[in-house]
Amino acid sequence: MRAMRWLRFFAILAGVTAFFYYGFIRDDFVSAFWESIYVAVNVVQLFILWFENRIGQFDEDERQFVHDALMDLKPVHAAKMLRIGKVETVGEGRKLLEQGEAPERLYYLLSGEVRIVQDGQQVGACHRGDFLGEMSFVSGSVANATALAAEPCRVLVFERSQLAQLLDRREPLRHALHAGVSRNLLTKLNRMNAHSLLRQNGLAGA
What is the pLDDT of residue 205? Predict the structure, then answer.
């Protein structure tokens, strides 16, 4: 059975059936007592499972992050990552990443636009739902471009050292984040290719 909640549900159903069998048919009150304990434990565990996995514990930004960046990871796992993140507002012109430097933070853009500049030339832009600094986080390399806020932005920020320690302990979270990063990288690559093509066509037309 793939879902733990269904396993707990059928365990409770079996326990209740056994309780009535031992208590009212066999008059075996000792066995009926232990079956009632078994049912009570599973009811408590089922409630804990429901409480940990309720999506309502997240606000709108967090739900969007879990859906897009963590590939709809179960809330019980996603909440552990969100607990070490913090939302910050950055002003226009602020640098989030510096080309050639190893970033100490991983950013997730909640609103606004960030310009991506490489060797002094804009090569693309990031918007809501994009990661910043993910390649450096995954590979441990320095940033290959500078990220500048084109307007006031809201970002979800994770300290690199804290996040690395968490991912070492939480395999489902690590797999979900890497999958989300890979999908976002592909989206950004397609966007940058389209931007480069339009720029080349503009130059050619000029």
Answer: 46
Q: Which residues of 126-150 are buried (b: 16+ CB within 10 A; e: fewer)?
A: beebbbbbbbbbeeeeebebbbbbb
Higher pLDDT, 20 or 3: 20
Each residue's pLDDT tens digit, 92-134: 999 999 999 999 999 999 999 999 999 988 888 999 999 999 9
Q: b/e per residue, 97-107, with b = 16+ CB within 10 A?
A: bebeeebebbb
Whether the full predicted model's pTM is greater than 0.85, yes or no, is no
Instruction: Return the pLDDT at 55.
Output: 54
Calpha distance 179→172 (Å, rounded): 11
Question: Any idea what the Cα angle at residue 181 is, between residues 180 and 183, rounded to 5°?
Answer: 65
CA distance 155 to 169: 25
Do the beta carbons of residue 145 and residue 99 sit within 8 Å?
yes
Helices (H), 21-148: 29-52, 60-68, 75-83, 134-139
